[in-house]
Fold this sequence. Notes:
The chain is α/β, with parallel strands linked by helices. The protein has helices spanning about 20-50, 60-70, 105-115, 145-150, 160-170, 205-210, 210-215, 240-255, 285-290, and strands at about 55-60, 75-85, 95-105, 125-130, 135-145, 175-180, 185-190, 225-230, 230-235, 260-265, 275-280, 305. It is elongated, with a radius of gyration of 33 Å.
Amino acid sequence: xxxxxxxxxxxxxxxxxxxxxxxxxxxxxxxxxxxxxxxxxxxxxxxxxxxxxxxxxxxxxxxxxxxxxxxxxxxxxxxxxxxxxxxxxxxxxxxxxxxxxxxxxxxxxxxxxxxxxxxxxxxxxxxxxxxxxxxxxxxxxxxxxxxxxxxxxxxxxxxxxxxxxxxxxxxxxxxxxxxxxxxxxxxxxxxxxxxxxxxxxxxxxxxxxxxxxxxxxxxxxxxxxxxxxxxxxxxxxxxxxxxxxxxxxxxxxxxxxxxxxxxxxxxxxxxxxxxxxxxxxxxxxxxxxxxxxxxxxxxxxxxxxxxx
Length: 308
């Protein structure tokens, strides 16, 4: 007796149906890829926004807190503000900073502590040094660990900080001055208050005694010094300080000048020297004559008068 075997219908997809599982897989992977790209774009945008806005993320350290407490306990130190943080995108590279308010007598002790510490990271230092004549001198520097720099880790301001603080105490009583080195060789003295009660005349002792200030700082006296304030901007060789002070006194007392800016050296405007003055219009001609007859390097520079 014969038996006829019948084959069961094939379950394999035929024609267009054969590619459906592969299509589903491709759609899943495409969705995952799109989500990954969108996530990367959003993440990159967030990190970029953090970079632009300089967003800081605290990274506290017991070792750094201990060092800050040691500094705060030094004689003459009034307060210490400490911060340790990271910024995008280098989240692995923390920055440690100390803002120290100290009187003049305690300042050397803080510098000694900064030089002697074995704290293993770079420290950004800011000092607010209060002087006996009620001057305030703002100083900024960075100290790098010996193992990194191969040299002393003492804060390097680019000038002799202690003698300069003492000289500023003599010639700028009551003022808040920030000395800073610009272009590596030019000492700038920045009056950081927006408005001075007596106008720029309160800054004239800085101008008059510029040679003494520069000598105290240890900077090359042949280089320009800059006085920078809201109402006075002047770049000059220190030996002209006394003559500039006389001219500026005359302009303020006799011709009502309230603001004076003279660009020169590396600070010229569009490559050209320019003197800009705020004064009553009725005195403009007399001011031009006074500057022209001063014999100073700015005597032949063009003058622009500004509204008071």
